């Protein structure tokens, strides 16, 4: 069973790094042979390559991160095509679990705050179940554009992200507010409300598709003009050569 990274001596870290860089073992092989997590060994290698010996020394003080940096990292993760370890490496954050905590705070409706700040900033607004369903459907209809949904409905990014996730997993009833005694009809909507929401969903999708088609037509027109211009230029150049 491996220990936590901070409990390994500098000499031990160099030993495990050497097994990979000098002896040609994989980090997985090191884990099987010595019980040190392969991700930990890989992290030591990356720190050593980036900062030398200083990158392997135990940090006695907690690094402070600005709210702006936290938001940037969180939104980059939520946009997709990356992972916690990749972001940790990109931003020089020693532990990828820190980013996981920021994302968890953000998607629960709380903005990540600067390090050591105790009171979380309140974000978003109160909504009804019908609103939450409409927002989730609108976001899905617009290819999961969370930022535009946030602006369009005046809610937080974290709220939109959480509602879409719940809606996709559990449908309409998953977005009912079950706190306290006042429950929203056990999550069941009336047929009229359901029809109104479906109409809004279809309108949102139609608007999005229409915009996409308009953009595509515009691009095709630009490409056609560029092709004509290129052809005319070539013909003009050929006529001058003659």
UniProtKB/TrEMBL annotation:
Pfam family, one: HTH_28
InterPro entries xrefs: InsJ-like_HTH (IPR055247), IS150/IS1296_orfA-like (IPR052057), Trp_repressor/repl_initiator (IPR010921), WH-like_DNA-bd_sf (IPR036388)
Span of domain Insertion element IS150 protein InsJ-like helix-turn-helix: 23-62, 70-106, 131-182
Superkingdom to which the source organism belongs: Bacteria
Gene3D superfamilies per record: Winged helix-like DNA-binding domain superfamily/Winged helix DNA-binding domain
Family stated for the protein in its record: Belongs to the IS150/IS1296 orfA family.
Name assigned to this protein: Helix-turn-helix domain-containing protein
